[in-house]
Amino acid sequence: MHAQSKEIQFLSGTDSEHTKEWDFWINGGRKSGSWNKIQVPSHWEQQGFGSYNYGRDYVTYGKNFKFNDEAGLYKYKFSVPNSWKGKSINIVFEGSMTDTEVKINGQLAGEIHRGAFYEFKYDLSDKLKFGKENILEVKVSKMSADKSVNNAERLADYWVLGGVFRAVYLEATPKENISWTAIEAKADGTFRSNINLKGVNSVNNLKVEIFDAKNILVGESQITVQKGDTLKEIRFSVKNPKLWTAETPNLYKAKFSLNKNRKNIFQTEEKFGFRTIEIRKGDGIYINGIKIKMKGINRHVWWPETGRAVNKNIDLMDVQLIKEMNMNAVRCSHYPPNKSFLKICDSLGLYVLDELAGWQKKYSTEIGKKLVREMVTRDVNHPSIIFWSNGNEGGHNFDLDAEFAKYDLSNRPIIHAHHKPGNAFNGIDCNHYEDYYSTKKILEGDNIYMPTEFLHAQDDGGGGTSLADYWELHWNSKKGAGGFLWAFADEGLMRTDFNNQIDVNAINAPDGIVGPHREKEGSFYAIREIYSPVKISLKMISNDFNGIISVENRYHFTNLNECQFEWKLVKFKTPFSSESGFEVIQKGKAESPNIKPTEKGNINLNLPSNWKESEALVLTATDFFGKEIYTWTWKISSNDEISKQFQKTLSKEFPVSVVENDSLFILKSEEKEFSFGKKDGLLKSIILDKKGKKMTFRNGPVFVNGKTELSSIKSLTEGQNQIIKVSYSDGKKINWKLNSNGILELNYEYSLSGDYAFAGVSFDYPENYVISTKWLGKGPYHVWKNRLQGQTYNVWQNLKNSTRTGFSPWIYPEFKGYFDDISWLQLDTAEGKITIGTKEEKMFVRLFEFYGIYGAEGYPKLPAGNISFLDAIPPLGTVLAFNINDKTETLGPESELNHLNGTFKRTLYFYFGLPDLGDENKQFTMPKENILTD
User: Fold this and answer.
1) Cα separation, 273 vs 77, whole angstroms
2) What's the whole-number mean pLDDT along residues 822-844?
């Protein structure tokens, strides 16, 4: 006899990629007033119906604003098989925005459902025609008739849409069945389940079997069932279960069978994990007896083309990206996600906060109780869910706190995600957007601190910016439990009323670490390094380096001997090579060190004795599952050595001369001429050849701090080279030297004492002449003083773009910005190539006009000029008020201005145009036999 399990018949499509066509009519906005076709599941706005609202429109437009209160009518005809006669049949809606009235064959299926993000169902057993056509009619109202539902769900800082946006299906079961189960499976192997029974009449036995990942039976138990039973509890133990954590997502399967004597009447399965959650007040959050810290992020269910109607591929991509950032947790802001997301969190390993909606206002108790039941009964058996979150930032109805445990046998902890101090709940303070110093203070208090939102990532601020300081604070503090960054993705919506452009609603929704289609920003990589569970602090390789690297294990459950470590010794491509990247000279594997979770030790790379002959060392750590954790790169060659190699390639020498007129000194070599102003010592013009071809690189070096006044300028000869020596009244000095190999050399020095946003020199070059850039240094993304992490040393190249972080066209990496640790940089321009190198270490380069945070004006302010060579760059704050007014230092030590005291000296080498490098740059000519003739 085959086991009878639930049979499913989809009425809609299964997800946003697989839809079905229904009939549709809408009472307002686009395409209103006549019957059309619509794809289901979807939002009707994305199908060209109705009109758009952002949830904060009521704030933007004031008291006279009214939301578009559209209602849509759906119709769909379907038939059900005769074999379903006598079965229990439900219609299930996985999500519909917002009030939903359902009719079958003209009869109301039940009371109107209010609440957009929750699965609800109606029993249709007595309303269906078998073997014949049935008519489903659904009326969906965007705004709820219940004010508290609108307050909780729609007056919010996100896009508010309409329609049946998750799947709709029929489920048929025998009359005697299991309606749902709640499992508690603890780390000691104890298994308990509440089994909710329906229609029990003749069955007399209930059996539970547990299978491991290899489908081997590891435990079972059975109990007798009496007529009329609606709830049975079963409990037994499994020996030495493999435990579930975000690092070890071990899953088991429970098979529940209802039997009449030995005949199976109904069967259902649930996946689950053995794990124990404890809140030890005044101490921390424990999983399986081990204290854990959340490396988390807030995630909206979102895709630009389809809004909150998504699919399992999007869910999988998001979990993989979150894990790629070395995060271990996600908050489902601000509503329960679709089911596939939670299944993937279970199987790949993420700690989840599952949240009842309530953006800043709460549901009424009457509505809230129903929605808590729907949320918990759907999600209760997911081991990934560590907390239930009862609303956000004031959207907590305290009367609902006790409701969760009615359906959750494991009685998970409940949190309140809030934005005001003094609202700790269950021994956990989740206060949002505290700065570094107030965080420090909270961590010295009585409660565990786990901010459910922090480092708001609008535009390029927040996210990875300042995160290193916050993370060290939480990692090293007894009561620090980590936290959840705001937010995962820019909520950009493809506007079907604006030619399918993507709209982030000005400054309201570009809050992501990734773009709308998951384009990675610089913060993505900074977070990846900061949160790496293999923590390596080595900054540079010294001459006495012996191949041994200090490492800290920041896993909670994994020994580093379960990871793999591979090293490479490499040589970089040169400025005039057509390629980027490096060449691998040698590679090998290091022995994985035995370092227990949270302990420190060393990795011995066992490098060959000639390692110093390479230009850099690359180390990649890979986890137990074969996924890369992080790759570090350390330079072995100094910039002085790298610049000498470059100069060696320029083997041809030409005589150098100087001429002067009333206003200029002009240095000449071969066909090139460089003119310098006698009043200020700055580069004024460049001529590349006898035809007078110009290069518009000029007006530098302007010192970016303080005003300079010339005190003396003179020209002199040094061997075969000509020098122009410039002094300024405040002690600043510059020397221009034209070398016989065609390199124009600039030496400058300046002294500073105090706090500065930036330090160094600038030049001008027309941005619209630039085609691309190539450089040896950290990359490929731009940096800020407090977000240097995540960029590695290599030869990078980038085609010019005008991306401003968080806004269309989302082409990353951004072309403009501050770039770190530059050895040489080459601009490819409409006028030819400009190659610039430095002899000293640690130079930042600033490229063109950009800013970190968008407001009335860009922030922070930029140095003068538009190409800068800097010894110090500014930190970036976040959009929230306490930082935008140059109070970035509240975000921690890394976010303070540069404390500078001393004299700074640097040498820059400029080469304009293409050198004659022999064969490498010879023009390609076609063989004669291929030349077309008349």
Assistant:
1) 41
2) 96
Name the one residue in this structure whose structure tokens are 């030349």.
931
Query: How is residue 133 written in tokens?
Result: 């056509």
Q: Outline where 244-311 has alpha helix (H).
A: none
DSSP 605-647: ----TTGGGSSEEEEEEE-TTS-EEEEEEEE-S-HHHHHHHHH
CB atoms inside a 10 Å sphere around CB 539: 7
For the segment 643-667, what is each residue's pLDDT rounded down to a tens digit?
Answer: 888 777 777 888 888 998 999 999 9
Q: Report CA torsion sign: 536, 541, 543, 548.
A: positive
Amino acid at residue number 826: Q
Is the Cβ–Cβ distance between 459 and 487 less than 8 Å?
Answer: no
Instruction: Compute the average pLDDT of residues 266-287.
Output: 96
Q: What confidence tens digit (pLDDT) does each residue in 55-101 have?
A: 888 888 887 888 888 999 999 999 999 999 999 999 999 999 999 99
Residues 6+ apart with CB under 8 A from 557: 245, 247, 248, 288, 290, 597
Let me know if 106 is exposed, middle or buried by CB neighbors in 10 A (0-12, 13-18, 19+).
exposed
Alpha-carbon gap, residue 417 to 387, rounded angstroms:
11
Q: Say whether pLDDT at 839 is over 80.
A: yes
Question: Where would I find the H helices in 679-760?
Answer: none
Residue 502 CA neighbour count, 13 Å, CB half:
19
Residue with tokens 């809030």: 418
> What is the SS3 string spanning 56-125?
CHHHHHCCCCCCCCCEEEEEEEEEECHHHCCCEEEEEECCEECEEEEEECCEECCCCEECCCCCEEEECC
HSE-CB at 184 with a 13 A cutoff on CA atoms is 17
CB atoms inside a 10 Å sphere around CB 903? 10
Residue-range domains of the chain with CATH = 7-173 (2.60.120.260), 180-272 (2.60.40.10), 294-530 (3.20.20.80), 543-622 (no CATH), 656-912 (2.70.98.10)
Q: Looking at the predicted structure, is the pLDDT value of residue 924 above 70?
A: no
Amino acid, single-letter form, for residue 17: E
What are the C-alpha distances in Å from 819 to residues 320, 586, 685, 704? Answer: 28, 29, 26, 17
- The half-sphere exposure of 745 on its side-chain side, counting CA atoms within 13 A, is 17
Most confident of 59-68, 106-115, 431-440: 106-115
Portion of the chain with pLDDT greater than 70, in percent = 97
Query: Buried b / exposed e across 62-85, counting CB within 10 Å, b at 16+?
Result: eeeeebbebbbbbebeeebeeebe
| Angle, CA 807 vertex, CA 801 and CA 812 arms, to 5° | 40
> Do the beta carbons of residue 23 and residue 142 sit within 8 Å?
no
Report the 10 Å Cβ neighbour count for 475.
15
Decide if pLDDT at 856 tops 90.
Answer: no
So what's the pLDDT on residue 260?
A: 93
The predicted model gives 930-934 an average pLDDT of: 38
What are residue 481's phi and psi, to 5 degrees?
-110, 15
Cα–Cα–Cα angle for 231, 215, 274, nearest 5°? 55
- Can the peptide bond before residue 98 be classed as cis, meaning omega within 30 degrees of 0? yes
CA 557 to chain centre: 24
Is residue 157 over pLDDT 50? yes
**C-alpha span between 590 and 547 (Å, rounded):** 10
Residue type, 633: T
CA nearest neighbour of 772 among 723, 834, 819, 725: 834
Decide: helix, strand or coil at residue 892. coil
pTM score: 0.94
The CB density around residue 709, as the number of other CB atoms within 10 Å, is 9
Sign of CA dihedral 287, 292, 294, 295: negative
* Residue 521 three-state SS: coil
